[in-house]
């Protein structure tokens, strides 16, 4: 799969941009290493930022990492 080198939407609030950068997330594709819950739980990521991020990911066909319980259910644990 080709890695998408696309930065975040310019209209993300500065606190959201800062917290993402502090976690090593500098391009949209970096989010695929994290679960949706992990990103939602970051201080600075509010509902508006989450909606913008999720919409951009959908447009670029990028998915969050699976939640642990999803991974366990798929393995049969």
What's this entry about, in short?
This protein is about 45% helix and about 0% strand.
Plain-language structure description:
The protein is mainly α and about 80 residues long. It is about 45% helix and about 0% strand. It has four helices and no strands. The longest helix has 13 residues, at about 45-60. The radius of gyration is 13 Å and the shape is globular. The chain starts with 13 loop residues before the first helix and ends with a helix. About 10% of the residues are buried. The mean pLDDT is about 85.
Number of strands: 0
Q: Write the H/E string, N to C.
A: HHHH
Q: Determine the N-to-C terminus distance.
A: 29 Å
Largest sheet: none
Q: Which class best fits the helix and strand makeup?
A: mainly alpha
What is the average of the pLDDT values?
A: 84
Query: Uncertain segments of ≥5 residues (pLDDT<50)?
Result: none
Number of DSSP helical runs: 4
Query: How large, in whole angstroms, is the Cα Rg?
Result: 13 Å
**Level of helix content?**
40-55%
Strand content: under 5%
Shape, per Cα inertia axes:
globular
Features:
77 residues, 4 helices
Topology of helices and strands:
Blueprint: H1 14-22, H2 36-40, H3 47-59, H4 68-75
């Amino acid at each position: 799969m080709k890695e998408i080198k696309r930065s975040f939407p310019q209209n993300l609030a500065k606190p959201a941009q800062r917290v993402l950068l502090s976690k090593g997330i500098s391009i949209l594709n970096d989010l695929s290493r994290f679960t949706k819950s992990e990103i939602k739980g970051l201080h600075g990521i509010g509902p508006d930022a989450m909606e913008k991020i999720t919409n951009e990911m959908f447009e670029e066909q990028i998915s969050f990492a699976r939640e642990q319980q999803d991974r366990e259910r798929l393995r049969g644990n």
